[in-house]
Write a structure and sequence with these properties.
homodimer, 234 residues, Rossmann fold, 12 strands
Chain lengths: 234, 234
């Protein structure tokens, strides 16, 4: 498997995928055409509108992008693709659509046989064990929260540190992940905006400039600097 | 029906339920014993630990509190109760527990026949059409997102206005509710911390000092000052 598990498609003050272009150029070096999965529909925009974003971004590194919705047979599109990217938006809508269209198994098959897969935000959530650590609103009811399970842990994208000056009584992100561990066993990695994980040759690496925060059931959360994180795979 | 739909159990700088005690005294004036539903388990605390909070708060207005988990037969406890309060925490865990224990129908029955019901945060979420506008992490998978449907709209508790200075790329609350309306038709009321709705004699009133924000599909969101909101019932 070859995976990029990305916290966010945009960092503050920078365009769509701009901060990642060097990595993408190298990650997708063996393909000129990316198959985009727009099902997470951020702000509810259409599949066509959404696909314009990666089209423009990937054009800068000489690659074309087609949306999976443009194909008559999405399973065949996945099977024939040489590079896949699932964009962010709503994890519930994304997962429900993949289940409803019967695409979960074929996605697992093609990614496990080596097609490079990048997911951003909701698209990275689904690479973990479940979408149980999504930040999204449950606006659609998928038949299961079980995700693609490419990695044996869960992702929390857009990880946010508690604001010490907040007067809001809603739960912090860390409290929510603590609640998750009352009902679930898998580790959770909080990926701050600008961070991503790269999996290749059975190695897992934290990339970007920021530390990531790892939550394990019954343990204190720990910070990890960019570098090898392969211990998370066992 | 007699309902209090409360955004939060605590406002900044004040103790558990402290800001609401005058309202509670009057709302529960016909009963001395409150049945507490602790299933939402904030921070994953136990049912016993959680029940201590309302016990202490209600003692200040001369009322005793028993947790529903203390009864051998929770259905019978609901049927015999003269005042019910469901606390906040995680809406997914709360709704799953109510479904798993077969308590949804009996709750509907007793509330519709007049037992006063207060819900706070997650406990208020479940009074609406669905938990589809919860802010919580989906740490458990309920058999449905359908809620008690005492009111024909959805609640967004702890409603937060966008922070104009934020550099975070995660969706604002308003964006999330806008996404909700791509897949769902019911109106959504954003209740800020310190606001609550009171339903009685077929009238709905917004109470507290703050305005609430109403989101309707395909319309601009609107602010409403405290006062009559009965138009939401039709």
């Amino acid at each position: 498997m070859k995976l990029l598990i990305v916290s966010t498609s945009k960092i503050y003050g920078s365009g769509y995928m701009e901060y990642l272009l060097d990595e993408l150029k190298e990650f997708y070096k063996d393909t000129d055409e990316i198959l985009f999965i727009p099902y997470a529909r951020p702000s509810g925009i259409s599949h066509d509108e959404y696909t314009e974003y990666p089209k423009k971004a990937f054009a800068k590194i000489g690659k074309t992008v087609k949306g999976i919705h443009e194909f008559e047979d999405p399973k065949k599109a996945l099977e024939e693709s040489t590079g896949i990217f699932t964009g962010g938006g709503n994890s519930f809508v994304l997962l429900k659509t993949l289940y409803d269209l019967g695409l979960m198994e074929v996605l697992k098959k093609v990614i496990k046989s080596g097609t490079p897969y990048m997911g951003s935000s909701a698209g990275s959530n689904i690479t973990g064990m479940s979408i149980g650590t999504s930040n999204d609103m449950p606006i659609a009811y998928p038949p299961s929260f079980e995700a693609l399970q490419f990695v044996p842990f869960n992702i929390n994208p857009h990880y946010l540190d508690p604001d010490p000056n907040s007067k809001h009584q809603g739960e912090t992100r860390a409290t929510r992940i603590g609640e998750f561990h009352h009902y679930n066993d898998q580790k959770v990695i909080g990926l701050r905006e600008g961070s991503w994980l790269r999996f290749e040759n059975n190695q897992l690496e934290l990339k970007g400039k920021l530390d990531a925060r790892l939550f394990a059931k019954g343990e204190e959360a720990k910070e990890y600097a960019p570098g090898d994180m392969s211990f998370l795979l066992s």
